[in-house]
Amino acid sequence: MYKIKNRIFVEKKLNLNDRIELASDHVHYLKNVLRTKVGDSIIIFNNSSNCLALVENITKNSCNLNIVEYEDIKKETHSITLFFSPIKRSPLELMIQKCCEIGISAFQPVLMDRTNLKRINYERLKLIAIEACEQSNRNTIPEIFSPISFDEMINHNSQNNYLYCSLGDELKRIRDHKLVKTDKIGLIIGPEGDFTSEEINKFKRRENYYGVTLGLNILKSETAAITASSLIMDQIYYA
């Protein structure tokens, strides 16, 4: 039986019996952190295949693998896009990491009236997304798109149902909307200070935009995103 030490995402085509040379950052992690040795096994994957590979040799600067088992990846059956107002670096990175682990399919930054931060380090966020998927056993890396305006989000209308998390006693809970896996769901998280009244009115004029509450307490943006993502995933898979 193979003793599997780790999962690694690679951006290259994989085939049975291929020999793969890993990038230097992977080599450092395997050799110095995990103490990987010749003969150890590793799962390597891309967005279409999942493979078991054996370490053929590993040095300070290189590591070569041989793929001994191969399987096609089944496409995820859900589609959840997180629309969010950009926030500060540390909470943003936490949000990306945890929402990747939970199962968010794509991340779409949206510039809203109260958005204070407009610059995003996409390369850094992509690495965080990859590491989160490696750790959580996901095989598909979520996309992180360039920012769009609030009106572009409203007018594009690419999802079946949009849920915007806001404050208000009259709002329903996520579970009241009876979501299913086949829905294309857009989850919208506002900036610190919530949406403006004008933005709320734009939501209300759309038939497939629904306000939802996450409870009595006021949550930070990253907390709201993580909480709402968990509730949606729980409903579409286990309700």
List the helices and strands and how they pair.
Layout: E1 4-9, E2 19-21, H1 24-33, E3 41-45, E4 49-58, E5 63-72, E6 79-84, H2 89-102, E7 106-111, H3 122-136, E8 143-144, E9 148-149, H4 150-156, E10 161-165, E11 184-189, H5 197-204, E12 209-212, H6 221-238
Per CATH, the superfamily of the largest domain is SPOUT methyltransferase, trefoil knot domain
β-strand amount: 25-35%
Total E-strand runs = 12
- The oligomeric status of these chains comes to single chain
The CATH architecture of the largest domain can be given as 3-Layer(aba) Sandwich
The run of helices and strands is: EEHEEEEHEHEEHEEHEH
User: Any idea what the radius of gyration is?
Assistant: 20 Å
CATH topology value of the largest domain: Alpha/beta knot
The chain-level structural class is alpha/beta
Alpha-carbon distance between the two ends: 37 Å
Low-pLDDT residue intervals, each spanning 5 or more residues: none
Sheet bearing the most strands, described? 7 strands, parallel
